[in-house]
Here is the input.
Amino acid sequence: MFRPSLSLRGLGLIASGVFVSCLLASFPARAELTVEITGAGANRIPVAIADFGGDFASARAVTGVARSDLDHSGLFRMVDTAGVSMNETASPAFDEWKNRGADALAAGSVRSGGEGRLETRFQLYDVARQAPLGGEALMSPPNMLRAAGHRIADFIYEKLTGERGIFSTRIAYVVKSGPARYELRIADADGQNAQAALISREPIISPAWSPDGSRLAYVSFENKKPIVYVHSLVSGQRVVIANFKGSNSAPAWSPDGSQLAVTLSKEGGSQIFMIDADGSNAQRLSVNSSINTEPFFSPDGRTLYFTSDRGGSPQIYSMPVGGGDIRRITFDGNYNVSPRISPDGRTMAFITQHDGAFRLAVMDLASRQVQVLTDSTKDESPSFAPNGRMILVATEVGGRGVLSSVSVDGRIKQRLSIPAGDVREPAWGAYRR
Amino acid sequence: MKHFIIPALILLLAAGCGSTPDADQPPAAVETRGGESDRITTVDAGNMDSRGLPPELTDAKSILSKRSVYFDYDKFDIKPEFSSLVVAHAKFLTDNRRFRMLIQGNTDDRGSREYNLALGQKRADAVKQQLLHLGAREEQVEAVSLGEEKPRDPGQNEAAWAENRRADMLYSGEF
Here is the structure.
């Protein structure tokens, strides 16, 4: 497989109006997406990750990933450790770390764990209270050291913010690299370690992760029309779940993973159906002659949000899965599409158009308050991180498709791009088990 | 057909009933045929192209060689200037019941990919409904959408967008 090799670059960072240059660890190989931070939170927690002891190269790889994850999150500021090496059993010189400005300190080591595996151990400390915050031991094959780095970042993130981290999750996206080359890729949440799940001469759109993270549903045009597949990532086995007369598209998993909502035109128009995950038992849900598409489940599985032009312009509506009243959700503007509901069910991300510009917006579903999060012109296909903190969205910069990761308050922004490639259709996967 | 199958079956059965040939014996020589006397010269009567399509569908002088119906922005109704084209294809499908057509609806690339897929479907469905209304049969016509995914003109200007707001009528062999 062709992997354009490219190192991760931090291109600068704007925090509360101050330009801070930021130097990030560069990875040996395989980096595919470049990451550019275009906005960050105002109050970043200062964290120090000392150089880990043990095998030097392995330790550097692990700490490099953990530091980069936390730095990119926009919630942390990495404190300069001045090359201090420290393993998990050493007693920290807390006053020194306090003087360096660190609120928290991590130390650890990477050593052979036997059977060709590497064992990473680390300990996190609260510098102000001079107390340990816990630690872990992680075993990984040598080519999976990044996973240990992500896991450390998740641990630190959770201890310091009280929320679960998303650094160990994966993302899916489509790269168009030529007139007839489309790749559905799976990468770590930081855009690295990308692998192609599907390569096709025809377009691939609308990837959707199964709730357990083992499968992707998507729409492929490989047979000259849109057909919905479910693809098991480990085996590569693909099952056609909707190939009816007409178009088949817009797959959305029910939270229990047993069914999908899909848009089918088999009965004329674009209507929403429920279908079992093996492709059987298609049941029509929407009963309306207008366009009804882009279904998305509420986290409790009881409500479907969707896009419809029944009111004359595309707007977002909701309907109970079991049948009942359809409610219009968006009213402001003449183009509101692509609803995605946050994992806690409280926020809806969607795309809204004003003056010809398509932008990512969020709505607080209780108050119906809307906030537009970007100033782009071609945002598409939003996708929540499993902790609900960030939204991945496709956008365009200089005529090329890139991915943008935006915090729900709009303050933290990163951009992921591939040189000479058009990146689109992002989908953020579930927590790993 | 039946008349050929039955004697053939009888022959096969008869052959099966015969004694098993001795494996040690070389098979009897069979006279092969070949040479100039068996050469077949294909005559093209001029009524099919390489995809099996009659010239009336592909000859640039025939209205049936035109396959695209264009739509206005966010519109799905067939404009009057395209009605004679749709009428001609409906007549062809009515007169040629063995022919099958795939209608691919397309949109410009502004907005949501999935919503555009539904818009393209609406355009393809509009052409299909007109064809059925004029005599084509349901089993002859399938309407699908390519949405914004296969732009004929990838440009970002009004002329390109207009080119992409289109439904194409394709016959078997063309898709």
